[in-house]
């Protein structure tokens, strides 16, 4: 006994300790919530109990009425189909066809087939629910030529014909795959024997088959059925599905025991059945057009009583409103004490959004204010550290750009000096003088006072000097053109020595297998707000996919480094705003395109 007493005291102390540790705001809020929840909950439960019986009775009556109306709608459509068949048999075209059937005259088959087209079209026009109509006779089948008859399947060898022997007065066949026409879609069929004039006696070997797409019947049954979760099914008295419903359960619901309780009653009935852990209200009534068919409506009890659930929701909404009012009142009581802390919390959230210029200000010198002042000192140190990191990253970026630019120059310089030396030995002093002058001008533009960006005019001048030197090195090897769409583009800035490596690739690699006939064209234009530079040659071409891979990954050797270098420099200057692409095919030349954001010289 003492053990249980000690345990109870210990538990109460733990609960009291947790209660004392929560804030005043939480205690006030908790008290209001408990009081209002108990009072509103009691009122809602009482209201729910009063309304439950009346709403439930109304829901049951509405469900039975809806099933009855659905059955009337289905019977109306099926009767309309039967009337359309009677109208067809009263037509003059049908009468003429039956005369030939009676006399076994097949010579006018195609004439009758043509004459019946209007009658068949009129039937499907008046009753859009009809999918197709087939008139089966000993002299041939008659049907709408807009349909494609499955010639391999005869009506006389089908299950429909077998059922006709059992029901000579005509019948409705449950859903099946249409084997009489191509497509093999599921249909519900109306089969009746043909009538021949007065006294309108059926002819045993003439049949009229009207097919209705199974989905049309299902749509007709479930028009508006999704409301409140109500679904309708068409089943036989043996519990088999007449139509494969697209709604839940399909044929899995145990219709047979359900319908067994209904017997053969024609009046609507309703019963509750449990299935799949839920309770369902099932209403059913017989079809007047086909007495063996039963229209059954199924609805979850929970969905049927949806109005009661709305009462519950309204009660919950009222509780939520009062709880919100309670929260507002308690918040006003505690906001004066917690306002400085809330202010500091808002500043911290702004820091999370990268607003580092925030400053905490307060006229007080209490504990919360001291925390705020410490926060200000911490933010000051963070901003100083960020500024140092940015400065170092900027210096690193400029150093990398200069290093990349420097890597573009030595290779060409070595080749040029070797050519000058060779021409000097051979006594071609005029060429030596021109090459030295062009090389000097190239260096002057390349140095450009230490600037990383030069104008397009200077870059093209640099290219012309480069071409002049290369034409001296490879006499007669190639010609070149430079075309500028708009003279205003010449003032645009771009990274220096960015075109020379592309042209050098064309000369060194594109023209490596020829001695004359080379051509390089440089075109400058404005395209979609970007400076577009295109360099094409008629050299031996390249594999674009392989070159693009080399542009993305730094090569392990110097070979192929130039294009990677250019792409990397553009990325350092412009990020994703600049683009670079290659094109061409082996033995058909190559093409290099650069798109650079235009920046005017300040």
UniProtKB/TrEMBL annotation:
It is found in: Cell membrane. InterPro entries: Bact_2-comp_sensor_kinase, HAMP_dom, HATPase_C_sf, HATPase_dom, Sig_transdc_His_kin_internal. Its EC number is 2.7.13.3. It is an enzyme of class 2 (transferase). Pfam families: HAMP, HATPase_c, His_kinase. It comes from the Bacteria. Residues 335-387 form the HAMP domain. One of its GO terms (molecular function) is protein histidine kinase activity. It is a multi-pass membrane protein. The chain crosses the membrane at residues 28-50. This is Sensor histidine kinase. SMART domains: HAMP (SM00304). Keywords: Cell membrane, Kinase, Membrane, Phosphoprotein, Transferase, Transmembrane, Transmembrane helix.
């Amino acid at each position: 006994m003492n053990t249980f007493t000690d345990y109870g005291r210990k538990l109460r102390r733990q609960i009291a300790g947790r209660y004392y540790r929560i804030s005043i705001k939480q205690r006030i809020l908790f008290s209001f919530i408990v009081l209002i929840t108990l009072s509103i909950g009691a009122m809602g439960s009482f209201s729910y109990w009063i309304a439950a019986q009346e709403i439930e009775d109304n829901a049951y009556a509405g469900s039975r009425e809806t099933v009855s109306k659905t059955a009337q709608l289905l019977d109306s459509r099926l009767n309309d189909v039967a009337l359309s068949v009677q109208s067809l048999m009263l037509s003059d075209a049908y009468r003429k066809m039956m005369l030939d059937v009676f006399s076994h005259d097949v010579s006018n088959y195609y004439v009758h087939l043509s004459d019946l087209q209007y009658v068949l079209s009129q039937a499907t026009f008046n009753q859009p629910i009809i999918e197709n109509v087939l008139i089966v006779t000993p002299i041939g089948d008659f049907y709408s030529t807009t349909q494609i008859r499955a010639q391999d399947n005869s009506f006389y060898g089908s299950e429909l014909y077998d059922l006709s022997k059992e029901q000579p007065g005509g019948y409705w066949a449950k859903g099946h795959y249409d084997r009489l026409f191509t497509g093999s879609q599921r249909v519900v069929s109306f089969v009746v024997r043909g009538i021949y004039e007065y006294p309108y006696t059926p002819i045993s070997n003439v049949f009229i088959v009207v097919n209705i797409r199974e989905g049309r019947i299902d749509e007709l049954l479930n028009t508006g059925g999704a409301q409140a979760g109500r679904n309708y099914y068409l089943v036989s008295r043996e519990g088999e599905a007449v139509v494969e419903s697209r709604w839940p359960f399909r044929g899995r619901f145990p219709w047979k025991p359900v319908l067994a309780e209904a017997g053969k009653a024609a009046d609507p009935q309703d019963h509750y059945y449990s299935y799949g852990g839920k309770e369902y209200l099932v209403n059913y009534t017989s079809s007047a057009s086909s007495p063996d068919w039963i229209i059954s409506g199924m609805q979850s009890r929970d969905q049927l009583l949806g109005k009661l659930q709305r009462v519950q929701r309204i009660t919950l909404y009222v509780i939520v409103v009062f709880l919100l009012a309670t929260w507002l009142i308690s918040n006003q009581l505690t906001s004066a004490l917690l306002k400085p802390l809330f202010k500091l919390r808002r500043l911290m959230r702004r820091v999370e959004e990268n607003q580092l210029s925030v400053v905490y200000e307060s006229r007080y010198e209490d504990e919360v204010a001291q925390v705020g002042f410490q926060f200000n000192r911490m933010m000051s140190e963070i901003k100083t550290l960020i500024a140092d990191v940015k400065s170092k990253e900027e210096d690193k970026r400029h150093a990398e750009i200069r290093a990349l630019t420097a890597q573009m120059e030595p290779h060409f310089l070595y080749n040029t000096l070797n050519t000058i030396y060779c021409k000097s030995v051979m006594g071609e002093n005029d060429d030596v003088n021109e090459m030295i002058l062009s090389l000097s001008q190239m260096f002057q533009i390349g140095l450009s006072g230490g600037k990383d960006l030069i104008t397009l005019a200077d870059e093209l001048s640099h290219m012309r000097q480069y071409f002049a030197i290369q034409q001296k090195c490879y006499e007669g090897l190639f010609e070149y053109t430079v075309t500028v769409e708009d003279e205003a583009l010449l003032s645009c800035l771009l990274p220096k020595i960015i075109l020379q490596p592309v042209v050098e690739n064309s000369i060194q690699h594109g023209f490596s297998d020829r001695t004359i006939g080379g051509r390089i064209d440089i075109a400058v234009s404005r395209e979609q707000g970007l400076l577009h530079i295109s360099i094409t040659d008629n050299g031996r071409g390249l594999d674009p996919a392989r070159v693009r891979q080399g542009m993305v990954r730094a090569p392990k050797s110097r070979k192929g480094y130039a294009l990677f270098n250019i792409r990397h420099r553009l990325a350092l200057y412009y990020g994703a705003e600049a683009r670079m692409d290659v094109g061409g095919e082996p033995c058909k030349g190559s093409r290099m395109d650069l798109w650079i954001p235009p920046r005017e010289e300040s």
